[in-house]
Automatic annotation (TrEMBL):
Keywords: Aromatic hydrocarbons catabolism, Dioxygenase, Metal-binding, Oxidoreductase, Repeat. Gene3D superfamilies: 2,3-Dihydroxybiphenyl 1,2-Dioxygenase, domain 1 (3.10.180.10). Homotetramer. Residues 7-122, 150-268 form the VOC domain. InterPro entries: Catechol_2-3_dOase, Glyas_Bleomycin-R_OHBP_Dase, Glyas_Fos-R_dOase_dom, VOC_core, XylE-like_N. Belongs to the extradiol ring-cleavage dioxygenase family. This is Catechol 2,3-dioxygenase. Transmembrane segments: none annotated. It comes from Marinobacterium zhoushanense.
Amino acid sequence: MKKGIMRPGHVQIRVLDLDEAIKHYVDLLGLIETDRDAQGRVYLKGWTEVDKFSVVLREADTAGMDFMGFKCISEDVVDARREELLAFGCEVENIPEGELSGCGRRVRFTAPSGHAFELFATKEQPGKWGVGEKNPEAWPRGIKGMQAQRFDHCLLYGTNLDKTLDLFRDVLGFDLAEQVVTPDGTRVAQFLTASMKAHDVAFIDHPEPGKFHHASFFLETWESVLRAADLISMTDTSIDIGPTRHGLTHGSGDYHYPDHPPVTWDVDQLGKAIFYHDRVLNERFLSVLT
Ligand SMILES: [Fe+2]
């Protein structure tokens, strides 16, 4: 069994208005600003994250995801996966240490889905914000808004789901934890994990490559989800749907071991799979993509 990729490490997101985006991610979600660089990019993290950053905001003319990075257990793992990515037929780019502030070298590649991903093993570790690693308090005071704890996963829309699964499973060592299939067996959604989490990255079949649906952040309890939704209303922020459970992944509360067979949903149950209580998909969830 191939292991060595630990978790989603970062996502670089293009935003149309940096100041508005900072209000959203810092004041509303409660992420912590940890740096800015010469390009004007802003670096953020959830307070429980040990690494320096997990979100990078870049102002641009179009919104979307520049790339998602996975953290590997060692530089040797990065090198080994790089060779296998080349053998798989991926174009691979070497990004030097320091291109992202406080991050070591990265290996970037494009998946058949059309999305750019990166592998890296080294990032500065200032520790959990406000509590540190020595005799830590339960939680830090002064966290804003939703008090998002950590970057959890991305949902991406794109092409070539089969080939993308081959790459993530055979080259990178992810497992297929959950899937949605049509009556003829075509997989139209796939939830992949490199860990015990229900998913670290998920893909929905889409005619256009490289589209971004969302990046998600972990909240500890249902109470904190309710409070987050309250804050969305207080700030008149647009919302796809109020607090609900997904059928898929038991609402992200499921866990995965490598010997678990994938959980399968029939496509005619998609409404329930996405919104377990409403049991129908709404237009906003389906159509708001960048
Ligand atoms: Fe999600």
